[in-house]
Every structure is written in structure tokens, then in C-alpha cells.
Amino acid sequence: MTTNLRHLILLTLAAVALCAVADESAGTTAYNFLNVPASSHVYGLGGHNLTIIDDDINLVEQNPALLGPEFDHQVGLNYMRYIGETNFAGLRYGQGVSEHGAVAVGIQYFGYGNLQGADPDGTLTGTFSASDIAFSVTYSHDISERFRGGITLKYLYSKYEDYTAGAVAADLGVNYYDPEHEFSASLVGKNLGGQVKKFNDFKDNLPWDIQVGVSKMLGKAPIRLHLTAYDLRHWSSPYYKIADVNNPNSDLIEEESFGSNLMRHLVLAADILPTDNLYLGIGYNYRTRTDMATYKRDFMSGLSVTGGLKVRAFGFGVAFARPHTGASTFMFNLTTSIGELLK
């Protein structure tokens, strides 16, 4: 067993120990900003993907096992204009540490704009700002020729007005990749950990999750299909919709069936890859669509699109989604290799 692989195992055990910090018997789930992807490619493919094999270090945020020495000296930037006044942005840098290992560091910022404050009696007290920041360190190692494991350790800092909170978390991932058949499969445990500093006396739990995914090229056709399953800790996933679609003030009714539960755990997506330097993709997230059943949605609800282009040392990616008619979201990625720039 190599020294680097021993380190990976030790870090994995340490991350599993973080789960002891989290006790879901009490408290509410927060830190849901961790579910927002840093990759425009992933965002355009439905918001969840663990298996894309591509020259884009932003993908590492979804699965630490996607990091490798091939990302040596690569820098990734991301920016998202989200709903309302919210803006998200991040930076990630990767470096190879051996023939079979790599590390990456990253920072992700989530800003929610100016919010209206009020006291317990409802008297307005002026505006305040709110933001979350995630600091991360990722390490990966090739377990064998086709298997790679990785771990991401994260520190989460939140500041809402004068209140602050902190948490520690870890992502554990493993990826299997067969380049001959262009098949990729992954298993990831995400956001394992808990709070180390509370806002007040209220405890918030992390949205930890178990996810699996596969990607496969369709023979010689330039089409890659993706299937990702998430929120696997819970099978039951009911949603609400308006009883009378012609009366927006009508009562809400709960909907749940075997088919809806199944589909609300799946993201379906496809890429078209006409060349090695260009991709176009589309994703469908049934949960997003059904969650918008009580809002004014349209054909685009649940759908998302993405495209990417590499020009010399730079890679560009964009994505667009519209959960409902009042919310259009746009995401942009940029990657570059410092080594290629210096040539």
C-alpha cells in the first residue's frame, strides 16, 4: 500500500468520524447552499452529476474522485446569477502531487443581497446582508487503473446580519472509469459533518446525502447519456400542487406515488460532443418541476441547458435554467491551465 493511499484512507476515516458531530434527532436542516453546483456543465445537466469525465476542475465540487493529476496547475472560476438579488461565485485550483494523486483548494461565496429586517413586533429595522462561504481542500488518489477515490474537507462560514455560524463537512467519492467503452460510474457521500458554532441556541443539520450516477457514450455516436440518483436517504418524497389549476387560491393537495417518488430522486441528462473542444447538453430534473407545482411554471420548469467550448488554453461554459416564469438563472464557468499559458 502506497503512502498516498494510506493518507487517503486515514482522511476517509477522519471524515466518517465527522458524522458523529451531526445528530439529526433535533434541529433543522440548513446549509442548503451546498446543493448548488459550482459547474455550469453540471447545472445545465439538471443540477446533479457525479460522473462527467472532462477537462474542467469545477466538476470536482460534485465528486472529489473526479480530481486527478491531469488537472495539474488548472484554475477554475464560476459565477451564477441566481434568483432575485442572489449571486454565487467561486475559485478552485488543482495540482498533481504524484503520478497517481492530486490536491485542490477552493472557495465558494453565496451572497443573498440586501434583506429587510424586522423586530418581533413586525417593526421594520432596516436592511441587512446575508452570505455563506465554503472553504474546501480536496485530495484524490488512483486506487487502481480504473478506480479513483477522493475526499473533500470543507469549512462553512455563515454571516446573517450580526449572527454567525460555522460547520465542518466532508465529501467522500469513488469513481470507476472505463475509457475503452467510455463508461463512468460513481458513488458519493456528500456533506457529512455538522455545526461547530450555532447562530443562537438553534442547531442546524447539514443536508448530507448519498448519491450514485452513471455516464455512457452511445457507441460511435457523439452522444453521452447521464443518470444520477440523489437524496437516497429518503424514499418518500411527496410534493404539493394546487387542487384547482384555474383557481390559484384553491387548497393545496399532497401528491405521492411510487412513480413520483422514483422520478424525484433521478436526474436525466444528455450531452452532444461533436468535437473534443465543444459540448451541448440538456438536463431534466423532475423534482424541480414538481416543486414548482404551486408556482407559475412553464415548459422550461425542470429543464436546463448548457454549452461549453475550449479555445487554446481556456475553457468556457454556460448554463441556463428557469424553475418558474419569475426566475431565470444563468451560470458561467472559466477554466485555464497555468502551464499552458506559460508555454
Summarize this structure briefly.
The protein is mainly beta. 11% of the residues lie in helices and 52% in strands. It contains five helices and 18 strands.
- Please state the structural category: mainly beta
- The percent of residues in helical segments reads 10-25%
Order of helices and strands: HEHEEEEEEEEEEEEHEEHEEEH
What is the count of β-strands? 18
CATH topology: Porin
Number of domains: 1
How would you state the average pLDDT, rounded?
85
Question: How many angstroms does the end-to-end distance come to?
Answer: 36 Å
Shape: globular
Q: Which consecutive residue ranges, at least 5 long each, have pLDDT under 50?
A: 12-27
Q: Considering the protein shown, what is the CATH homologous superfamily?
A: monomeric porin ompg
Enumerate how many helices there are, as a single number: 5
CATH C-level class = Mainly Beta
CATH architecture: Beta Barrel
Strand order of the largest sheet: 2-3-4-5-6-7-8-10-11-14-15-16-17-18
Strand content: over 45%
Biggest sheet, in brief?
14 strands, antiparallel, barrel
- Rg over CA atoms, rounded to whole Å, is 21 Å
